[in-house]
Amino acid sequence: MIRTFLRVVLLPDRTRVFGDSRFRPFVQAALLGYGLVLAIGISSGYVQRESPDGWWPLLFGIVLGTFALVPYTPLGAWRLATAGLFAMRLLFTQEPAILGDWQWCWYLPVLVAVGLLYGGRVVFVVAVITTGAVYLVGAMGNLDYFPPTLLFLNLFLLVAYAFGARGRAEQRFHEERDAKAALVERARIAREMHDVVAHHMSMVAVRCETAPYRIAGLPEAGLKEFAELGDAARAAIADMQGLLGVLRSADQQPDHAPQPGLADITALAPQASVTGADVPPAVGLTAYRVVQEALTNANRHAPGSTVSVVVSVVDGALEVFVRNTAGGPSLGGGGGHGLVGMRERVAVHGGSVTAEPTPDGGFAVRARIPLGER
């Protein structure tokens, strides 16, 4: 609790409203506009009702500064606003209530922002400090306004916290679901990559074992070396099979079918233009899965659309381009896990994936898979 108290009143706060959202500039502009209107209203009200002794810039700065801080540090904004309560009380000598009309519009949104964005401990400490501050401000004038003011402030804080807690719970649920989906996809990638690697290792073992029959006159040391290489290849295959058993769930049966490659893409999309280049089997498998997932997404989210598929070698990399035109209403489902899986697969080869809407209302997926040394 001491750590929470220090966080509320003293430590730097790095909470960002809307994070990296594209709406963040608009939110900042709206808050500044709202703060500017309030700052003008509160400072002009002070000049009209109180003796114009030159303190209005302080009120203007407190109010505008509060809303300028909200996007970067809501706790910092609350600190400034809470300290500003005392300045308001000292300068608004003709105001009987603890908070006037304009001041409610200034302080309450900041308190609500804290309730929406922070956890229970922080909100509790904020409520306690706010209660103390409001009591002291009331004691400087008329304490009759303390109970209703405190009731409304804490009621709004509690309601905001309830909404914020629900939103945070949903966010955690989605994050955990996405993390689980990524793990499942990685296990699937590992199982498929096992088949590709196991094929190569089997070839190494067979060539080592048949070397004495294919190459005449091998010295004794060479025969021993080939035998040891063959044993190492078979041991590697056994180890990979053991690892595969860990990645496979208890009710999942081994898939003995060969893994698909570039030549199988036309079975998915007969209109596809696919290069005839000789690429590593693992790269061909990744390209096939990217096309498969992109076609699934097109059928799901743009039913009836026209889809084009081009797989080509460009500057030392296999480039997979799948584009669909605008289609009918989305059938829903998916949850975006397919794109996560594409990126996981392509990242295995050090490549990249871009997926974005097109100007004509369609969608395009472009994967670039480095071929490396072949």
From TrEMBL:
Residues 185-251 form the Signal transduction histidine kinase subgroup 3 dimerisation and phosphoacceptor domain. The keyword Phosphoprotein applies. Its EC number is 2.7.13.3. GO terms for cellular component: membrane. SUPFAM superfamilies: ATPase domain of HSP90 chaperone/DNA topoisomerase II/histidine kinase. Residues 286-372 form the Histidine kinase/HSP90-like ATPase domain. GO terms for molecular function: ATP binding; phosphorelay sensor kinase activity; protein dimerization activity. InterPro entries: HATPase_C_sf, HATPase_dom, Sensor_HK_TwoCompSys, Sig_transdc_His_kin_sub3_dim/P. The keyword Transmembrane applies. The chain crosses the membrane at residues 26-47, 54-70, 104-133, 145-164. Keywords: ATP-binding, Kinase, Membrane, Nucleotide-binding, Phosphoprotein, Transferase, Transmembrane, Transmembrane helix, Two-component regulatory system. It is an enzyme of class 2 (transferase). It holds the Pfam family HisKA_3. It catalyses: ATP + protein L-histidine = ADP + protein N-phospho-L-histidine. This is histidine kinase. It comes from Saccharothrix variisporea.
